[in-house]
Design goal:
By secondary structure, the chain is α/β, with parallel strands linked by helices. The protein has two domains: 5-13 and 29-112 and 219-314, D-Maltodextrin-Binding Protein, domain 2 (3-Layer(aba) Sandwich); 120-215, Periplasmic binding protein-like II (D-Maltodextrin-Binding Protein, domain 2, 3-Layer(aba) Sandwich), CATH 3.40.190. It has twelve helices and twelve strands. α6 (148-159) links the parallel β7 (139-142) and β8 (168-171).
Length: 320
């Protein structure tokens, strides 16, 4: 069973003064609509729903919708059909660069070189590809073009004796990446371990040649929870409550892998053992400009955005 009581007690204490105390029934109905992705890296949304955290922070109703990409979530926020959502930081930097009025509220998944779960470049075990230079003239699969996966791989190649301009990148859905490499349709794939649990194991037919994201920084914030500036301006109490929920859920999830695996498995309709077979994501319980900056800088380096900018510029003043 998932352990809820001690988590909810901690959250109740942390929210004193955040949502605004009122007598029972005095608050107006408060509804929260969250957009997420069906993966461990954005699992906080599922955990907060299952644990009753949204209710605890003051929302009378909450709805979690799983979409396929951060771009789809951003479009839903801008259309008004969602209130808050998840995206990778590089995608949010691109939106900021274009003047799209989005703002970061809370941290999501961290990249940590000690326990990499994403940005893993893999090839067939018998392939003659061992170094960055060996990728010249080769085709690499990435979950999305001009995203953190592609620019992370380019950065690693260029930092380790290769030339990323001589590599062809093609878009392959993350869940199909391993099968596409195994079929020989691409020379290498940038893998998410959550979609390929045996990656890196001795008997796996694929071989890892790099944890590419480490070339960006040993540790950085890869994903974040965000909203539109308009929604935050009109709903500051709801924004604060959501931030508190995500921060506390991050702390809980980092210390309760077995319990979070049970919840995530239920939402993803897979076994909890399949979730636990992977290296689990570490979530950020605060938003740090220093941890956001590496994604912004590498986006500028590879032309995804026109120029770098201070990460503080797109963090909400309500974020902690």
């Amino acid at each position: 069973m998932v352990k809820r009581p001690e988590f909810l007690g901690l959250l109740a204490a942390s929210l004193t003064g955040v949502t605004g105390a009122s007598s029972a029934g005095a608050q107006a109905e408060r509804r929260l609509r969250v957009g997420t992705m069906p993966a461990d890296f954005s699992g906080q949304a599922f955990y907060a729903k299952d644990l009753g955290t949204y209710t605890k922070v003051g929302f009378s109703d909450s709805e979690v919708t799983a979409l396929t990409s951060g771009n789809a979530i951003a479009a839903a926020l801008l259309s008004g059909s969602l209130d808050v959502g998840y995206s990778n930081v590089l995608g949010l930097a691109g939106a900021h660069d274009k003047g799209i009025p989005l703002v970061i509220l809370a941290g999501a998944n961290m990249y940590d070189s000690r326990e990499p779960t994403v940005g893993i470049i893999a090839v067939l075990r018998g392939a003659p590809i061992k170094t960055a230079a060996d990728l010249s003239g080769k085709t690499i699969g990435t979950g999305a073009l001009k995203n953190i996966t592609e620019v992370g791989a380019r950065n690693w190649i260029d930092a380790n004796g290769g030339d990323s301009t001589k590599v062809k990148f093609v878009e392959i859905p993350d869940p199909a990446m391993g099968a596409t490499v195994l079929a020989g349709r691409i020379d290498a794939g940038i893998m998410n371990q959550g979609n390929y649990p045996t990656l890196g194991k001795p008997d796996d037919p694929l071989r890892v040649i790099a944890n590419a994201f480490t070339s960006i920084a040993p540790r950085f914030l890869s994903g974040a929870w965000f909203s539109t500036i308009d929604w935050v301006t009109k709903n500051p109490a709801d924004a604060r409550a959501f931030i508190a929920a995500m921060n506390e859920t991050a702390t809980w999830a980092n210390g309760h892998h077995a319990d979070s695996a049970e919840i995530l498995a239920r939402y993803l309709k897979i076994s909890s053992s399949a979730v636990e077979a992977n290296t689990r994501v570490t979530y950020a319980s605060t938003v740090s400009a220093a941890l956001l900056q590496p994604s912004i800088d590498v986006a500028a380096k590879y032309g995804v955005i026109k120029a770098s900018f201070p990460a503080r510029d797109f963090i909400s003043n309500l974020a902690v």
